[in-house]
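Students often ask what a holo structure prediction actually looks like on paper. The answer is less mysterious than it sounds. You provide the chain, you provide the ligand, and the output is a string of discrete structure tokens encoding the 3D arrangement of the protein together with 2-keto-D-gluconic acid.
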Amino acid sequence: MPQRPRLWIPRRLSDATLERAQRDYDCVINWDDTESDADTLVRMSAEVDAVLPCHSEHFSAEVAARLDPRLRIIANHSVGVDHCDLAALGARGIMVTNTPDVLSDATAEIAMLLMLGAARRAVEGDTMVRQGKWDVWSPSFMVGKQVTGARVGIIGMGRVGRAFAARARGFGMQVHYANRTRLSPELEQGAIWHDSVESLLPQADFLSLHCPATPQTRGLMNADRLALMPKGAILVNTARGALVDEAALLAAIVSGHLSAAGLDCFQVEPGGNPAFAAHPNIFMLPHIGSATVSTRDAMGFRALDNLDAFFRGERPRDALT
Ligand code: 8YV
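The corresponding structure tokens follow.
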């Protein structure tokens, strides 16, 4: 029997994923589930043929240059690949894959949760009841912003953006989107295309970010662009923290230009931005967009499908290099 490829799994993936991985590969699993630094990535690359990492393992250009030639494939357990320098890894002849599609619904659900929670003051209301401070009721109390019938802007109308748009339409929202290219009518489903972010923003009573973090989109939502949104607008980010200038967002919240924000992603992760904590109109979650049982299994299986294809000598379905 030919030797099974040796696979390093640096994080505690779902039980079903680990079971299948151990059935088909000679696995090294980091049961402690700790993050690995650059030196660990480099050291492990000499011991395995493949790695199945999360977005928490950073394969930078500097790491790519130091990887041992034994490592042939990085099969990511994520759709975002901003933690991998694709050009540098490709130049080393390393295959890199991701897990698109399978997490779109779960991430769209979290974007809806953040939008609704930010609009209807979920943090304030929950804190008040939980702390036993709910001692008054009045019709002018805890009044929020209505989602139904409002305009929502979507930046990045890929798979997750479209899954979010479908849910927003269920709330009777008018969907606007900015995307490099206009979608076909079947994919657009009546959404209004803008050829620039600047044209979209003045229409966005709500704005949801669904584009990848790239050198071009880093700091996309800066002070100038936040100022283009209507007064009282709400920003939702389930994509990447790097897309938002957090100091500019805080200033927009403090000035009241934005009435609220819903964030699942931060520039610093894990941890988030402690300066946001004083503002109950910033509804925050710890990067859990894809964290459901079925989606975690589907992400793990998609990554394993990519590994299986690669070791059969085929080009994996989600090949990026
Ligand atoms: C994951 C994500 O939680 O897929 C992505 O890009 O950010 C999240 O779905 C994470 O990457 C898991 O590895």
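DSSP finds twelve helices and twelve strands in the chain.
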